[in-house]
Design brief:
The protein has five helices and ten strands. With 182 residues, it is an alpha+beta fold.
């Protein structure tokens, strides 16, 4: 029993949970339009059968890798001077993986990029990816099937309004942060 407890302690020390910050967008109408053009049999649903598929709770992941020391007030600080406007979604692209393909749309907005950069100071060392650009996930597809949808959606463009920010903390709680939208 003692050996099992020691092994479990070592395992959980290696598995670290991080927080994140996301920008929620008013995108439901456009996603519905895109999802109507997708064959359900092409979606990757994950081992549990419901963990992927279409993007859920859609928005822009601004930062990942936040330690438990990052408070909601710290997240709010760079936001209080930011006035958000509608953002442009375009440039469909694909991340091809071993288990699934991710079809995404780029988010083109200088305020979103600035907030990502401002919040990156809270990311734990070694986890920051300076090349990360904001995007919205359309869906997760079985390996190799994402390419046909990339061609279908390559000319898709729309403007959507930001709604609010969420601070997803390491304890799995989600704090909604209101933002100024003009």
């Amino acid at each position: 029993m003692r050996k099992l407890i020691t092994k479990l302690k070592k395992f959980f020390k290696k598995t670290k949970v991080y927080g994140s910050v996301n920008l929620r967008l008013n995108i439901d109408y456009y996603l519905y339009e895109l999802h109507l053009n997708v064959h359900r049999s092409d979606l990757y649903l994950g081992p549990e059968g419901n963990s992927h598929g279409f993007g859920q709770g859609l928005g822009v992941n601004l930062v990942d890798g936040l330690s438990g020391d990052v408070t909601t007030d710290m997240v709010k600080h760079p936001l209080h001077l930011t006035k958000f406007t509608r953002v442009r979604l375009d440039n469909a692209s694909l991340i091809e993986g071993v288990d699934f393909d991710v079809l995404k749309l780029d988010v083109n907005d200088s305020n979103v990029v600035k907030v990502m950069k401002d919040l990156s100071v809270y990311i734990e060392d070694g986890l920051f990816d300076s090349s990360k650009k904001p995007y919205v996930t359309i869906g997760y597809f079985k390996p190799g099937t994402g390419k046909k949808y990339l061609n279908k959606f390559k000319d898709f463009k729309c403007w959507v309004a930001p709604l609010y920010i969420t601070h997803n903390r390491v304890d799995n709680s989600e704090i909604k942060i209101n933002i100024d939208v003009i």
